[in-house]
Amino acid sequence: MQKKYLMTPGPTPVPAEVMLTMAAPMIHHRTPDFSAAFKAAIESLKYVFETKGDALLFACSGTGVMESAIVNCFSAGDTVIVCRNGKFGDRQKQICEVYGLTVIDLAYAWDQVVDPADVATALSENPGVRGVIVTQSETSTGVLNDVKSIGAIVGEYDECVLIVDSITGIGAVECKTDEWGLDVVMTGSQKGLMLPPGLAALTVSEKAWRAYGRSTLPKFYFDWMKYKKNVEKDTTPFTPAVSLVLGLNEALTMIKQEGLENTIARHSRLAEATRRGCEALGLKLFAPPEGRGNAVTPVWVPEGVDGKAIVKIMKDKHGVTIAGGQDDYAGRIFRIGHLGYFGEFDIITTLAALEMTLAELGYPFERGAGISAAESVFMEG
Fold this sequence. Notes:
- By secondary structure, the protein is α/β, with parallel strands linked by helices.
- The protein folds into two domains: about 5-10 and about 260-380, Aspartate Aminotransferase, domain 1 (Alpha-Beta Complex), CATH 3.90.1150.10; about 15-255, Type I PLP-dependent aspartate aminotransferase-like (Major domain) (Aspartate Aminotransferase, domain 2).
- It contains 13 helices and twelve strands.
- The chain has a seven-stranded mixed β-sheet, sandwiched between helices. The chain has a three-stranded antiparallel β-sheet with strand order 9-12-11, with helices on one face.
- Strand 11 (about 325) and strand 12 form a beta hairpin.
- The longest helix has 21 residues, at about 260-280.
- About 50% of the residues are buried.
- The mean pLDDT is about 95.
């Protein structure tokens, strides 16, 4: 028998309390019971998004709400600025191009942070830009972009909306939707919300609703107004993922009991312990010091070591599933997730498995150094 540990940036582990809630007998979605649960879920989503505006919930993946943001805010031919420094910034650009938008491409190396000054320059040099799109927490790289500063810049343009992919940010890092002037912020259920995949949520500001009013791109399932009108009646326009909504209530209750600030602080400790543990083994972190998030820690594979073998041995031999690199970084980096239902000993276990794996692959290091460094972070905190 082998106990398994899921240490990826999504899907993430699901608490037993949430699993048990989802295992309850099915209820019909057009009943007072479901409406009460749905209403509670929407209000709790506003808490984690830190918004008093509209929160909408969809039965889809994170990519679904990415697409919904494009079709609800823009028209074919509109000009948008896409900031991309990872796989999911690339995806935003692809969606924009599919729908006939003109993209001003602010592309960075995957190990760089988006510079808000570049956004300011692009806006000043291109009158009539309708949107700025940025990923707050890049799952593929662990890079954290400064959406607070970008929000202040875009806020000076009345007809330009700021769309933020915080799919691995919400619940792990600060994301003050209203205070920072973020018009659309999105997340997915299999990340910080501690659920299986299948739900995604986003917020819509008043400025974003104005953009919706002038948008002419086709939309049906993802039409925000359908969801808004139904949210006002505590229901959904289409058949919802009933069990996931019930589980969402339980997961959000757990976050509220911990307190959002404490939840973010916990993620910060887990991330710091992971980083220090890896560095103590002589490993080099991928994300730059000025832009490291709390959701995932990507690490360069040391020279002479098979990066894909690290992921395989940890999973097959030690029961610890981490993520490899994506696209051009496959085999070159590995990623340790610590987003959602994670605690201190998950990190200790993962570092122990990493140490044993590296030793098996012939990488020289001081045995126990990574574990000791992580323990120091937890004991300091």
